[in-house]
Amino acid sequence: MPATTFSTAHNIHSLSSEKEKDVAIQSLVTAFHNDPIAQFAFPDEYIRDLNHTHLFTDIIKDQRSENVIIDVTEGAEAVAIWERKNPGDVSSGGDKGSCPVPPHVQEFFDKVEAAEPPRPYLYLSFLGSAKKGTGAGSALIRHRLKQLRKGERVALWTGNESNVKFYEKFGFRLFAKIQGNGVAAFWMVRV
After folding, report:
1. pLDDT tens per residue across span 34-47
2. pTM (2 decimals)?
3. Fewest C-beta in 10 Å: which of 2, 21, 104, 132?
């Protein structure tokens, strides 16, 4: 059977219109709907999607920090949200959105935060695509990595173990594995 090929020509740019922001929010909600950590934090699908809608709206439409970079593909069907993390920056307390989480979920987010790599680094907060397998996520990562300053570190954490191999293709290495309550998170660093 012949190998499937994907177009690697993705037009990467910053968000430019309210309509594009709305599409980007929906793309991320779709991408994270079945995420293991999201399912752990919000087992009810309706609450999960509502929480993600609020979370991504807060990040994308109410962006207040010059440290946040949002890259999208044409049509905003794939989105990467990056943040510069510097020593002394106040932590966001986990990327769980505006819905309250049960204590066991907060405890897990606290463990993830405690395992954070030393700062400074560029943090890949979210990478998601409404359509999997198009190469858009890879294009978004390559786009930002090409723009790094010499010696700049990049870090991320994922709650999906199958993503570890994906990120390793871009030079990320496992930094820490956090387990608890039947879920796991994997901090990864690229130097």
Report:
1. 999 999 999 999 99
2. 0.90
3. 2
Spatial contact of 140 and 12, defined as CB atoms under 8 Å apart:
yes
Report d(CA 97, CA 145) in Å as an integer.
Answer: 27
What Cα–Cα distance (Å) separates residue 110 from each residue in 114, 131, 170?
6, 31, 27
As a whole number of Å, the end-to-end CA separation of the chain is 37
Q: Could you tell me which residues come within 8 angstroms of residue 41 by beta carbon, excluding any fewer than 6 positions away?
A: 48, 51, 96, 101, 105
The first and second tokens of residue 154, run together, are 């990049």
Q: CA 128, CA 118: separation in Å to the nearest integer?
A: 25
184 bridge partner residues = 179
- Tell me how far apart the alpha carbons of residues 102 and 161 are, in angstroms, rounded to a whole number: 23
Which of 20, 142, 152 has its CA nearest to residue 86?
A: 152
Q: Which domains does the chain have, with CATH numbers?
A: 13-190 (3.40.630.30)
